Amino acid sequence: MKALVAHGAGDLRLDDIELESPPADSVLVRNTHGGICGSDIHYYRHGAVGAFALREPLVLGHEVVGKVADDPSKTIPAGTNVAIHPASPCGQCAECGTKVPNVCRNGRYLGSAATFPHTQGGFSEYMVVRLDQLRVLPEELPLERAVLAEPLAVGLHALNRAGGVAGKKVLIGGSGPIGILAAGAAKAAGAAEVWTTDLLDHPLQIARAVGVDHTVRIGSDTLPDQYFDVAIEASGAPSAIGPALAAVRRRGVVVQLGMFAPGPRPMELSALIAKEIDLLGAFRFSTELDESIALLAATSVLDPVVTHTYELAEAGVALDIAADASVSSKVVLKLSDV
Ligand code: ZN
Question: Which parts of 38-192 are beta strand (E)?
């Protein structure tokens, strides 16, 4: 079967790889749609994501949905639409024991070089998936939308880390796909106001299309001071933390969701102390995938986040478009015919 494989920086190939047959605790999924994430772009362009460098060829992709093709245990009928939970925590460590498997110290994640051997991803025509990683989709949720379930779960986890956002004024820093999905989720959760920021116009247009209340163009518009209860920093720019700390109220909450490359870098943190702000990290998600699927089944409001869809054979073009935030938001690969 065809699979999209990163062999090193700038070396992306559509390889023919062997299709395994599923063991008893797993099913064979015919993948239909895969969303391109920033990490896929980093593996393709730089051969690494932060400290995680490619040490062997890696099938990219962790935002994958499809249809069950074969279930040896006969519990899920062939043709059933499913999403795939990309995480497989160890189940043994202290973090797994305290029900925070998203920070499992031994965790593996689809399409990731964080562990060796690498965990092969899902940008392929088929994939063997353990039953506990499978989520059966509601009938009313089309696969074209369900492909947003994984990145939306990341946004939902950040909102949960903030202690929930119902009735609160929420600032989302950065209007990439994760930021916009977090903003849409905050609206759905009953936030009083949701604002998003970006350096570029196009992401702010997408933000307005999903119903964000106010958009702020960094460099030309200004953010109100001490206005927000919660800020979710989704841009990954260390320079954005200072403005987020300034924009939240005293005793407000700032959640760092955007990833940083390793290494020290300057940031303005003085307000953290004087305003007694809670500054928290958010990493991936755990049970939020189920919340995410339910939300996507209930509303089409997040559909504008998917701006482009390409065939797997056009993956190089798709990754280049996905890397250009001035024209795209979430770019989706069609992994096989529905
Ligand atoms: Zn664990």
Answer: 48-49, 52-53, 58-59, 63-70, 81-84, 87-88, 108-109, 126-130, 134-136, 169-173
